[in-house]
TrEMBL record:
<dbReference type="Pfam" id="PF07690">
    <property type="entry name" value="MFS_1"/>
</dbReference>
<keyword id="KW-0762">Sugar transport</keyword>
<dbReference type="InterPro" id="IPR020846">
    <property type="entry name" value="MFS_dom"/>
</dbReference>
<feature type="transmembrane region" description="Helical">
    <location>
        <begin position="88"/>
        <end position="110"/>
    </location>
</feature>
<feature type="domain" description="Major facilitator superfamily (MFS) profile">
    <location>
        <begin position="27"/>
        <end position="508"/>
    </location>
</feature>
<protein>
    <recommendedName>
        <fullName>Major facilitator superfamily (MFS) profile domain-containing protein</fullName>
    </recommendedName>
</protein>
<feature type="transmembrane region" description="Helical">
    <location>
        <begin position="485"/>
        <end position="505"/>
    </location>
</feature>
<feature type="transmembrane region" description="Helical">
    <location>
        <begin position="211"/>
        <end position="232"/>
    </location>
</feature>
<feature type="transmembrane region" description="Helical">
    <location>
        <begin position="451"/>
        <end position="473"/>
    </location>
</feature>
<dbReference type="InterPro" id="IPR044740">
    <property type="entry name" value="SLC37A1_2"/>
</dbReference>
<keyword id="KW-0812">Transmembrane</keyword>
<feature type="transmembrane region" description="Helical">
    <location>
        <begin position="185"/>
        <end position="205"/>
    </location>
</feature>
<feature type="transmembrane region" description="Helical">
    <location>
        <begin position="385"/>
        <end position="402"/>
    </location>
</feature>
<dbReference type="InterPro" id="IPR036259">
    <property type="entry name" value="MFS_trans_sf"/>
</dbReference>
<dbReference type="GO" id="GO:0061513">
    <property type="term" value="F:glucose 6-phosphate:phosphate antiporter activity"/>
</dbReference>
<feature type="transmembrane region" description="Helical">
    <location>
        <begin position="414"/>
        <end position="439"/>
    </location>
</feature>
<dbReference type="GO" id="GO:0005789">
    <property type="term" value="C:endoplasmic reticulum membrane"/>
</dbReference>
Amino acid sequence: MAPVPPGIRFLASFNRDQWYRAFTFSLTFLLYTSFHLSRKPISIVKSELHKNCSALMDLSTTSSSQLPGFTDTDCSWKPFDKSNYKQLLGAMDYSFLCAYAVGMYLSGIIGERLPIRLYLSVGMLMSGLFTCLFGLGYVYNIHSLSFYIFVQVANGLVQTTGWPSVVTCIGNWFGKGRRGLIMGIWNSHTSVGNILGSLIAGYWVSSNWGLSFIVPGVIIAVMGVVCFLFLIERKRFFIFTLRSSSLTGFRCKDCDINLLAQLYHSYKQGNKCQSWDTELLLPQEDGGSVCVPVQQLVVVKSESEPSAISFMGALRIPGVIEFSLCLLFAKLVSYTFLFWLPLYITKAAHLDAKKAGDLSTLFDVGGIVGGILAGVISDKLGKRATTCAVMLLLAAPTLYGFSMISEFGLGPTIGMLVVCGGLVNGPYALITTAVSADLGTHKSLKGNSRALSTVTAIIDGTGSVGAAIGPLLAGVLSSRGWDQVFYMLMAADFLALLLLLRLVAKELTSANVVKPRSGSTSVEMKEH
């Protein structure tokens, strides 16, 4: 008999539960990647909506007249051809983010009471629709500001279905052990989505910016269908107890799954109907043989599920308010970069829209590294707030350095983009993932897992208020010079740091590292 290939042996070493965990991890990663992929095009297209007309003076009148939305005297897309274009672009960002912030508070409460798979699938399909609508403004030559504002508001509302849903799913499948590392890696979907969104939007931005929205819209809609077909919301625990008896070792050599089902149903008692998942989770051995513990099969299921937590009940969880307000300022910085970095690079480095969009992806590359490092360090130390505070303390002077170095060419700019991305997105990633999951499963909840979506929505919803304010302020301040924007970002980082000082002091003065039990290496976070 030929030996089993090593790759097959490796795959067979994982049990069914591990495969489901890996599948849920990968699927939710891809689902939220598509969310950020669909949000990124607006930052890439901004420099195309209002162009530097002096760069196009060499174009003939004939060629200019062939561009939809342009006249002989301008080169920008109306209504963004006026001197107040920065305020108009900022208003579009603000409309999306304000709707997102308001909707997020409701989304977590609604999502806690509806099937997550259906809720998330509908949200993704609607997000695809509104993202495509923005791109159709180019196709149908639409120049109404109210149209673009309406699309942004609607898209902001439906996109709130994403974050509470995916965090709840991943929290249901993964416990607290190494949660920072796992969620740090998983949260890189934010940066991966931004990178892919920049590359896709940048490919068409100069030739047909409508496709910069339509293609990402189609992608998130397709992923919504995938979500509906494959997402497993939570881990179902089926414990099969086999007592020591003469039946131990019983084998059914030629049984298939249908025969197994018949055996199982023949020994059910009363009218207690069990899920078909029970049959599917019974282990198979010896090339299809199935262990059938006849008459000793016990299915243990929860008799009743706890009720969902209220909004005020979630606010009373220790640490929720502090981390929510901290995220308000941390997300203000992150989303200002998300929406304005390509335009800043275009103006500061004098690059075209495509090159600026490609270069801006380095900020997200740094964000991936920063998110993972923040998770690993916080797992090792057991100090989430302290890890965030140190990164925020380092981020403020780094932002100032970036504003100075960006004038000295591409080399220094590339290095500082990566560093800034890591320090800015590290705390943001840690708070929205591991910290939210920790607080959503806090010991004060006494095992009630139906608080996770609400807590996540409160924290991210508060952060989204900052995400709405940041780009709006950037649009106003940039008219006075980009230095003013960076001063605002540095001030926001310091405010985020100040809001964590109480929790940092508590972590540093209390014995928050629980001595692990014999054979265990896990570190738990004490109550904030």
